Amino acid sequence: MDKKLFPVTVVGSWPRPGWLLRALKMKRDGLLNQEAFNLIANEAVLSAIKYQEDAGVDILSDGEQRRDNFYSFVADKVKGIELKSIAEIVDIVPDKSRFEAILRRLDVPAFSIRNPVVTSKLELGSKGIARDEAIFLKAHTSRGIKVPLPGPYLLTRASWVPGISDKYYRSREELGYEIARLIREEILALKEIGVDFVQLDEPVLTEVVYGEQVEQTFMCAALFSRENPKEELDFAVELINEAVKGVAGVKLGIHVCRGNWSKKEEALLKGDYVPLMPFLAETKVNQLVLEFATPRAGDVEALRDYLGEKEIGFGVVNPRNDVVEAPNEIIERVEKILRFVDASKVYLNPDCGFGTFAEVPLATPRVAFNKLRSISSAANELRKRYGGQ
Question: Does the pLDDT at position 50 exceed 90?
Answer without folding.
Answer: yes
